[in-house]
Each structure stands twice: as C-alpha cells, then as structure tokens.
C-alpha cells in the first residue's frame, strides 16, 4: 500500500516566515539599526530559525515524509541520505553563526546569514523535488 500524499509534508508557513525574517534582517541597510542591536537581532533570529529547523529536521529523520518517499521509490535512498547529512551541516552553521554574533564583523555575519539562507533554500528545494519524484 502506498502512503497518501498527505504524508508528504513540505516546509510550513512558520518556517518560511522565519527564513524571510532572517533574510530581511541580513539584507537591511547597514545603518538601519545600531550595530549592537543588529547583532542581537541576527543572533535571536538565527537561534529561532535553529529551533524551527531542528523540529523540521527531526520530523524528517523520524521517517515522516522521507519514509513515505522511500516506501514509494526505494531507489531514492542515496538522495534521502544526502539530504539528511545536510541537516547536520546546516545545524552546525546556524549555531556557529549565532555564537559569533557577539564578536564577529557585522558585514561578515550578514554575509554568512545570507549564504546559510541560500543553503537552506537549496536544501528545501531539493526536498520538494524529491517528493515530486515520489508522487
């Protein structure tokens, strides 16, 4: 029996809004806020995003929709494993960025946040493609 399409959960609205908020902060004009406040804001948003992504990744790794994908198309196992491995990289980079917010150069922090958002976006797009292959 194949799982219903409802088992394929894609990024939810909360995750998308968290990604958008960090993107807006990372791209805001350099003097939109005093440096210290901008650092605290970046750190807070990165930590918030980390929590949301942890829950998102845990659900995937517990087999929620990735399990459904593999039930339908077992040949996609290598792709699923690659995506799961990216979870660790993304988590590590989020925590590193958050801890560097107190002392790192602000322009570098903003660049790292933007690069991390690109990686997360690519990861999520790859997951959507994977789900589409299994439908």
General description of the model:
This protein starts with 12 loop residues before the first helix and ends with a helix. The protein has five helices and no strands. It has a single domain (11-134), classed as Four Helix Bundle (Hemerythrin (Met), subunit A), CATH 1.20.120. It has 135 residues and is mainly α. The protein is elongated, with a radius of gyration of 17 Å.
Describe the structure concisely for a colleague.
By secondary structure, the protein is mainly alpha-helical. It is 76% helix and 0% strand.
Helix and strand layout, with pairings?
Layout lengths: L12 H15 L7 H27 L3 H8 L4 H24 L5 H29 L1
Helix pairs in contact: 1-2, 1-5, 2-4, 2-5, 3-5, 4-5
Count the beta strands: 0
Largest sheet: none
- Which fold name fills CATH's third level, the topology? Four Helix Bundle (Hemerythrin (Met), subunit A)
Shape: elongated
- Indicate the CATH architecture: Up-down Bundle
Counting helices, strands and paired strands, the structural category is: mainly alpha
Termini separation comes to 14 Å
Radius of gyration (CA) equals 17 Å
Helix tally equals 5
How much strand?
Answer: under 5%
Low-confidence stretches: 1-9
Write the H/E string, N to C: HHHHH
Approximate helicity band: over 70%
Query: Which CATH first-tier class would you pick?
Result: Mainly Alpha
Q: How many domains?
A: 1
Averaging pLDDT over every residue, what do you get? 86
């Amino acid at each position: 029996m194949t799982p219903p399409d409802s088992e394929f959960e894609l990024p939810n609205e909360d995750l998308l809004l968290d990604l958008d908020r960090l993107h807006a902060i990372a791209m805001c004009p350099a003097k939109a806020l005093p440096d210290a406040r901008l650092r605290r804001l970046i750190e807070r948003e990165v930590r918030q995003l980390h929590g949301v992504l942890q829950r998102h990744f845990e659900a995937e790794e517990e087999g929620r929709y990735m399990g459904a994908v593999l039930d339908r198309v077992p040949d996609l196992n290598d792709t699923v494993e690659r995506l799961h491995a990216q979870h660790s990289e993304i988590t590590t980079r989020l925590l590193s960025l958050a801890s560097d917010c107190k002392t790192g150069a602000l322009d570098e922090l903003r660049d790292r946040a933007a690069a991390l958002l690109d990686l997360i976006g690519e990861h999520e797009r790859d997951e959507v493609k994977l789900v589409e292959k299994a439908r």
